[in-house]
Amino acid sequence: MTDPDDAEKRAVLRSVADDLRDEDGDQSTEAERIAALVHRVSDIYDDDADVDAQHVYLNMRNILQISEQGGIDR
User: Fold this and answer.
1) How far apart are alpha carbons 42 and 38 in whole angstroms?
2) pLDDT tens for residues 59-73?
3) pTM
4) DSSP conformation letters of 24-69
């Protein structure tokens, strides 16, 4: 992905993820989960990350399923 807009998209998405993490001092689990998902989507626009949209989708789906089940240490 050599589009110069990709770097800007990645930066904006990561900034949003950082804002979500910093928004509430309590670091709510839900806000952190959303921040992690937004950050993961930003990897699509990262030339250094070897991922595609399908890989990111499957990873995010797995994270949400584990969260629904109460975490890894159910």
Assistant:
1) 6
2) 889 888 888 888 777
3) 0.75
4) STT--HHHHHHHHHHHHHHGGG-TTS---HHHHHHHHHHHHHHHHT
